[in-house]
């Protein structure tokens, strides 16, 4: 992906990946943001569900419950969450109507590139609940 802001998010993800507490803080920030967002902004194409699934994956990894995800996949997921939570990116989130377009594009790209691993996580999660 040729997005300068995504590359910054990936660098931040590399710093967070080895710190379970920081990863859990990221997930808490994600849940807070999802709770306070306008439902119309994130109802497109199951975005909320995808974000929640990625958040659960990161949380399970951080807690040591699920470690079957390749590290490269984990970095992509964390970077996507960082990108989504950062209000200043390719299209700043404050621009009403289009501010989330780039966030959703990055999320869609990352989700599709790690979908197989996410599906494995969901299967694991289902079997452990």
Descriptive labels:
globular, 129 residues, mainly alpha
Report on this structure.
With 129 residues, the chain is mostly helical. The chain has 7 helices and no strands. It starts with a helix and ends with a helix. The model has no long low-confidence stretch (mean pLDDT 83).
Summarize the biggest pleated sheet. none
Evaluate the radius of gyration. Answer: 14 Å
By DSSP (H or I, 4+ residues per run), the number of helices equals 7
Average pLDDT reading: 83
Q: Could you say which overall geometry the principal axes of the C-alpha atoms support? A: globular
Poorly predicted runs: none
Q: How many domains, in number, for the residues?
A: 1
Q: Give the helices and strands as they follow along the chain.
A: HHHHHHH
Please summarize what this structure is.
The protein is 71% helix and 0% strand. The chain is mainly α and 129 residues long.
Topology diagram in text:
Layout (H helix, E strand, L loop, with lengths): L3 H13 L3 H17 L2 H4 L4 H16 L8 H15 L15 H13 L1 H13 L2
